[in-house]
């Protein structure tokens, strides 16, 4: 059983930045998803085990950046220019390969709350 732990969420004002972390073992594709209140979960970004990055969320293009620190077994989601519509619970998930379909991931973290409000 792979145990994922997200951290770094919080309350920020519009335009500010936030960096989320996902502690996970290496060798997996790690995806970030988010779920806003009353809305379906949506894929944000993913980093395959072999390198490269994928951004699924159009509104995240140029604002959110995913990265991996193999020495620390951690995947990051650096978020800039945050907007109120970015508010939600952010989850990281581990799988064999990247996919926008959350059902393709085998392991999930508990989520971390991100609130963007003035």
Task: Name the features.
single chain, 118 residues, mainly beta, seven-stranded mixed beta sheet, four-stranded antiparallel beta sheet, 0% helix
General description of the model:
The N and C termini lie far apart (40 Å). Strand 4 and strand 5 form a beta hairpin. Strands 2, 4, 5, 6, 9, 10 and 11 form a 7-stranded mixed β-sheet that branches. With 118 residues, the chain is mainly beta. It is globular. Helices cover 0% and strands 46% of the residues. The protein contains no helices and 11 strands.
Secondary structure elements and pairings:
Layout: E1 5-7, E2 10-12, E3 18-23, E4 29-35, E5 42-47, E6 54-55, E7 64-69, E8 74-79, E9 88-95, E10 107-108, E11 112-116
């Amino acid at each position: 059983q792979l145990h994922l732990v997200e951290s770094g969420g919080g309350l920020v004002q519009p335009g500010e930045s936030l960096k989320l972390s996902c502690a996970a073992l290496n060798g997996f594709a790690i995806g970030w998803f988010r779920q806003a209140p009353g809305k379906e979960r949506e894929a944000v970004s993913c980093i395959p085990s072999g390198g490269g990055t994928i951004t699924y969320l159009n509104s995240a293009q140029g604002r959110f950046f995913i990265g991996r620190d193999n020495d620390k077994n951690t995947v990051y989601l650096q978020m800039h220019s945050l907007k109120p519509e970015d508010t939600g619970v952010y989850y990281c998930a581990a799988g064999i390969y990247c996919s926008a379909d959350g059902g393709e991931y085998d392991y999930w973290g508990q989520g971390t709350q991100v609130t963007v409000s003035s």
